[in-house]
Amino acid sequence: MLGVFLIIYMYRQFTSTELEDLKNSFRTADYLYVFFSLIIGFTGFWARAYRWKYTLAHIGYSAPMGAKFGSVCITYIMNMFIPRSGEVSRAVAINKYAGIPFDKALGTIIAERIVDMILLVLVVGLTAILQFEEMRSYLAEIPFKQLLFYGTIAGILFLGSVLFFVYSKLEWVQKIKIRISGLMQGALSVFKMPNKWPFLLLSLYIWFSYVLMFYITIYALPETSGLSFGTVFTAFVIGSIVITFTNGGTGFFPFAIAKILAVYGVPKSAGAAFGWIVWTSQTAQILVLGGLSFLLLPLVYRNK
To answer: What's the CA gap between 114 and 107, in Å, rounded?
Structure first.
């Protein structure tokens, strides 16, 4: 709902001429490049599912590739509707269709997310160093004082919750601790498993596929086809941050992309069109793969 209101608000920031240019960009875009980008995106889904076998194997479990792939697709579609629910849904799916204990499966997923977050931080840091002036112009309008205030409150509440959980003797808390022990076993598996390098190489490929599918799409529009790799990479980082901290970037992604590309001289209408094409195509892929996973997993692995 928030995304819908944001879309309406953002569209009101466009003049009638800019809206017409935006519509014309959609009509004249070369969607063959979008198709190629989605093929790359599909390989990223596959790599994430294949990577999962290493953390599962380290804690003594295995699952069919189809069950892992379908569970990964369910992660993406669930995160679009309920932020961060995808990880739990993925653990539920692999438990239901491959018999892997929920807490240990969730632990391996958390381990993956830790690695992904580390890579995201490295990418953001590298971009901030290489594109410092442009990033500063983009971030100048963000109300950091308000963010610091709310972040401090959230931090205090989180710390209080952790202390209560650690020192509480309540029976229901003790039961949760037992569950968490299995979760931690899965989460720590990535740091102890013998096959670290294949796991890390696949992690790098997953991020490479994200960047490549984003980069290929710039050729769909004349206004963005001449952008340098550094510019595209900066826009990719901004988009990744938006997706990470929202429900799939709904209502936010296209306008965040338009804003950062405007720093590099791309017209607002063209930047917004590019953002919408990227977001819509990737969202459609998630909906199709996620929907098929919900449909086919019970049929293929119903004996589980």
So the answer is: 11
Residue spans of alpha helices (H) in the chain? 2-11, 16-28, 31-58, 65-81, 85-98, 102-130, 132-139, 144-167, 171-187, 189-192, 196-217, 229-244, 253-263, 268-300
Q: What are phi and psi of 273, to 5 degrees?
A: -60, -45
Are the C-beta atoms of residues 48 and 206 closer than 8 Å to each other?
yes
The set of residues, in sequence order, having a beta carbon less than 8 Å from that of 101 and lying 6+ positions away, is 61, 95, 182
pTM given for the model? 0.78
How do residues 163-212 score in pLDDT, each as one tens digit? 666 666 666 666 666 666 655 655 566 667 777 889 989 999 999 999 99
CA-only gyration radius of the chain, Å: 21
Q: Which residues of 267-289 are buried (b: 16+ CB within 10 A; e: fewer)?
A: bbbbbbbbbbbbbebbbebbeeb
